[in-house]
Amino acid sequence: MMASLNKFFSLVTTGERWLAGLAIGTMAALLCADVFFREVFHHSLPWAQKLSLHLMIISGSLGVSLASSSGGHLRPEVGDHVLPKAILPAVVVLRELCVAAFCFFYSWIALGYARQSHESGDVNVITGVPLWVIQGIFPAVFLVMAMKHLFFALIPAARPVRAGVH
Questions:
Q1: How far apart (Å, rounded) are the C-alpha atoms in residues 68 and 56?
Q2: Domain count for the chain
Q3: Which of 21, 47, 57, 148 is the most buried (most CB within 10 A)?
């Protein structure tokens, strides 16, 4: 089971990397095109900057999830240096459960926010992109992070360990 879950989360992480890279590459191309059009044709692409902002939101959110899955984000260190070393494994499990609960909660909050935008028909005036499409990244990323940290709590051996971090 652990091997299957590791493979699943490895595929999720690969997907996150590809999506974030695609978003960053597209964002860079849009901004370069905007500057080119502005400098050469004296006409800007009015939607390029706003669409790039949407892509930055997506890539940044995916980056948070990637950092979290590598042990580099959302890592409370309460008790690491104060509590006896004998109980640190239990503290790690509790910490991962707390992070998972935090992420599940914010996934639920973000889903409500995106649903509200969907129901009210909010659309970006410049790009015409429905706001819920962009906002949908937040519940998705928080849900993936919650699942990863729940996995790390249930199977501590699968948790990434960085140098100098317990």
A1: 18
A2: 1
A3: 148
